[in-house]
């Protein structure tokens, strides 16, 4: 019976720095996952210690081929879409409740397990060993490109180069880690530090939050498989002129019911639902585990698609 731990977390910082005492890894936009291997038994648990073994059968099958009697791996489950990790898609695998749909989702949304640390190997805890030594053990267990599903995250000496590369790819960011750092579960530790790029997407206004006499913020949605999905609310970046124009246009855009299949729960006084017509360019920091945007800002508006 596995007693899952809470994984170690990085602290956030605004700017990356370069040092020989640190190494640099890609920060993947996915679901944090610990894999526990004990003989033929393999279990997966997320950062909240919730069992997810049945959600990712392909990861379990791939882990069974690793050459060890036991191990604890730390990494991120990701879904790659057009060359970048797609958090919105991996959430569908993480939150699936209908097991009958799993085989279909496995074909439509294949996952990868990006492993960046090893906490135990063949019965020996490695958490008190320096990161560099743990990564040496991991490199023997998972050689580069030896697996289709499980991948070992590469570590780089050139932090600025990796920052530029991840920015060009529109990836989430970089995690910098002290080479001599030990693993401290269940805490945020400054020996791991994350620096994130802001992301961009084009969403659609599906509603507005009305306060006083004008539009205060926008409710956003995106279309997925023909259905509108609510992804959060944004007020930052809206100019006063834009608020006035949207307020004046409300009468022609208003609708009775939400177009999204997952509107915010509870009472929503001040919310007015609108036809999903106006597109909005948004900058945001990351997706939340609930599938909404964190720290979104309006960048601009686009004409409706014809």
Automatic annotation (TrEMBL):
<dbReference type="Pfam" id="PF04679">
    <property type="entry name" value="DNA_ligase_A_C"/>
</dbReference>
<dbReference type="GO" id="GO:0005524">
    <property type="term" value="F:ATP binding"/>
</dbReference>
<dbReference type="GO" id="GO:0003910">
    <property type="term" value="F:DNA ligase (ATP) activity"/>
</dbReference>
<feature type="domain" description="ATP-dependent DNA ligase family profile">
    <location>
        <begin position="104"/>
        <end position="196"/>
    </location>
</feature>
<keyword id="KW-0436">Ligase</keyword>
<dbReference type="InterPro" id="IPR050191">
    <property type="entry name" value="ATP-dep_DNA_ligase"/>
</dbReference>
<dbReference type="GO" id="GO:0006310">
    <property type="term" value="P:DNA recombination"/>
</dbReference>
<dbReference type="Pfam" id="PF01068">
    <property type="entry name" value="DNA_ligase_A_M"/>
</dbReference>
<dbReference type="InterPro" id="IPR014146">
    <property type="entry name" value="LigD_ligase_dom"/>
</dbReference>
<comment type="similarity">
    <text>Belongs to the ATP-dependent DNA ligase family.</text>
</comment>
<dbReference type="InterPro" id="IPR012309">
    <property type="entry name" value="DNA_ligase_ATP-dep_C"/>
</dbReference>
<dbReference type="GO" id="GO:0006281">
    <property type="term" value="P:DNA repair"/>
</dbReference>
<dbReference type="InterPro" id="IPR012310">
    <property type="entry name" value="DNA_ligase_ATP-dep_cent"/>
</dbReference>
<dbReference type="InterPro" id="IPR012340">
    <property type="entry name" value="NA-bd_OB-fold"/>
</dbReference>
<protein>
    <recommendedName>
        <fullName>DNA ligase (ATP)</fullName>
        <ecNumber>6.5.1.1</ecNumber>
    </recommendedName>
</protein>
